[in-house]
TrEMBL record:
SecDF P1 head subdomain domain location: 203-307
Organism placement in taxonomy: Bacteria, Bacillati, Actinomycetota, Actinomycetes, Pseudonocardiales
Protein translocase subunit SecDF P1 domain location: 67-121
NCBIfam families: 2A0604s01, secD
Protein name: Protein translocase subunit SecD
BP-aspect Gene Ontology terms: intracellular protein transmembrane transport; protein targeting; protein transport by the Sec complex
Similarity annotation: Belongs to the SecD/SecF family. SecD subfamily.
Length: 524
């Protein structure tokens, strides 16, 4: 038989809460292979900073519009790749990327231009000498860029157009004289409308390529694909948009037996031979890739190429001393505030205050486990703004307790009910208020998260998450514990619950209502 409205079986709720805690901490300690600690943001654990300097072919200053577009694309890559806690800011003509921990290589990858173009292979030769390194600074010199473009992108390197492209009269000599470089001055700055002399990423083969016939902007999706029986290597599977699908179908139909080069930032990443016409709009980039390399390549292609090419500085370490000092001060202030809340609850609510402390402690237990798991699963990092969100959320949780307890007092004072009978009725009334309050808080957090960036977004995320956990604790812990206490003769004693004064007032009101009108008047 179901219990009356408002009445519950506390054991079931508490048992379900215990199950949640057990599952969470089982995931914390027995999955992921990492430490059972949350990931900290840059301001708390320090990080690595890389400065990307914009390069233009003529050495002119990049436009503010191009820099802002590049910053937005890098932020999109950050969100898609999952490098949580990363800061991307403009500093003059530079973009500064700061990532938590020692992830300098990851920051440099975020700044990859990722300009992909599909070119027809006109000629190719194996490289017989190892790639040479240019003098320091020459790779970024505008004069070196223009010189490389004049030598390697001369219009007379090829003749004909479209499917009739062929090597020009001086092309063979130019290809033979061309040497690969470890730092290509043209990297990301080649003209897609001109032929190109370039090398593959490994520096083992050099190519004479025709103009770009299909740009990377026509890629609809890029996915890293694992080796299979008929595909022994890691690859990046590409899907073209409608226009790109038609261009690729026309090219592969007309060039069976020829090679097509997939050129990323002026380097050839793959140059397969076309075996048959490809009409479904799909293709793949293959090579001697590792799993991590194919994932990185798929991610940068998926989220778009940068409008500028960049050179990256060496990674520098960012100290967490200031952040840790601020955290320590914040924790001390938060600890003092919590202590005052606990003292007030214990003095004013007594037993109910003890239940408040227990509920807050259990809430902290869940929050910690969730932080650890979010750090593993979505690379969520806890920063100072997130800590502020949690501290504010403690007030939200305490407010839910106060709403419930005051409703209990109202039921006892106004309805003349006992502690035990007041709990189910008070809970029904308090529940609506708690749900409405937390719903407003969650919606505010969601809106703030949607429109904000950076630290403010982290604050909104932690505040919203804590609001959800507040509901779990109030419904599965606080209410059942209060219900259990109300059913115990010992725990429901007025001197323990702090409800003695309210019960006395209720009794006086009942007595006053029982006295007949005029009974206290003197006889004339």
């Amino acid at each position: 038989m179901a219990p009356p409205a408002g009445r519950i079986r506390p054991g079931r709720y508490l048992g379900f809460f215990v199950l949640i805690v057990v599952v969470l901490y089982a995931l914390v300690f027995f999955t992921g292979g990492g430490k059972p600690t949350p990931k900290l943001g840059i301001d708390l654990q320090g990080g690595t900073r890389v400065t990307l300097s914009a390069r233009t072919p003529d050495g002119s200053a990049p436009s503010r519009e191009s820099l802002n577009q590049a910053r937005q694309i890098i932020e999109t890559r950050v969100n898609g790749i999952g490098v949580s806690g990363t800061e991307v800011v403009l500093d003059g003509n530079n973009i500064v990327i700061t990532v938590p921990g020692e992830q300098g290589d990851q920051a440099k990858k975020l700044g990859q231009t990722a300009q992909l173009g599909f070119r027809k292979v006109i000629d190719a030769q194996p490289v017989t000498t190892p790639p040479v390194a240019p003098p320091p600074g020459q790779a970024d010199d505008p004069a070196a860029i223009q010189e490389a473009k004049a030598a390697r992108q001369a219009a007379d390197l090829v003749t004909g157009t479209g499917d009739s492209l062929a090597a020009g009269p001086n092309a063979s000599a130019a290809l033979a004289a061309f040497t690969c470089s470890t730092q290509d001055p043209l990297r990301g700055n080649d003209d897609p409308n001109l032929p190109l002399l370039t090398c593959d990423q490994a520096g083992t083969e050099k190519y004479l390529l025709g103009p770009v016939f299909l740009k990377g902007t026509e890629i609809d999706n890029a996915v890293s694909s694992s080796p299979a029986q008929n595909k022994p290597q890691w690859t990046v599977d590409l899907t073209f948009k409608s226009e790109g699908r038609q261009v690729w179908a026309d090219f592969t139909t007309a060039n069976i037996g020829q090679r097509a080069a997939f050129v990323l930032d002026t380097q050839v990443v793959s140059a397969p031979t076309i075996q048959s016409a490809i009409l479904d709009g799909n293709t793949q980039i293959s090579g001697n890739f590792t799993q991590a390399q194919t994932k990185d390549l798929a991610d940068v292609l998926k989220y778009g190429s940068l409008p500028l090419s960049f050179t990256s500085s060496d990674a520098t370490t960012v100290s967490a001393t200031l952040g840790l000092a601020s955290l320590e001060a914040g924790l001390i202030a938060g600890g003092i505030g919590l202590a005052l809340v606990f003292i007030y609850c214990l003095v004013y609510y007594r037993l109910l205050g003890v239940l408040t402390v227990v509920s807050l402690a259990l809430s902290g237990l869940i929050v910690y486990a969730v932080l650890v798991l979010l750090g593993r699963w979505i690379n969520f990092t806890l920063d100072l703004a997130g800590v502020a969100g949690f501290i504010i959320a403690i007030g939200v949780t305490a407010d839910s307790f106060v709403v419930f307890f005051e409703r209990l007092k109202d039921e006892i004072r106004e309805g003349g009910r006992s502690f035990r009978s007041a709990v189910p009725r008070g809970w029904v009334r308090a529940r609506r208020t708690i749900l409405a309050s937390d719903a407003v808080m969650f919606l505010a957090s969601a809106v703030l998260y949607a429109i904000a960036v950076g630290d403010v977004q982290g604050f909104a995320f932690t505040l919203g998450m804590s609001t959800v956990l507040d509901l779990i604790v109030v419904f599965l812990v606080t209410h059942p514990l209060v219900a259990l206490a109300s059913r115990s003769k010992f725990l429901s004693q007025p001197k323990l619950t702090g409800l003695g004064g309210v019960q006395t007032l209720a009794a006086e009101r009942r007595s006053a209502r029982k006295v007949p009108a005029g009974a206290g008047a003197k006889e004339s």
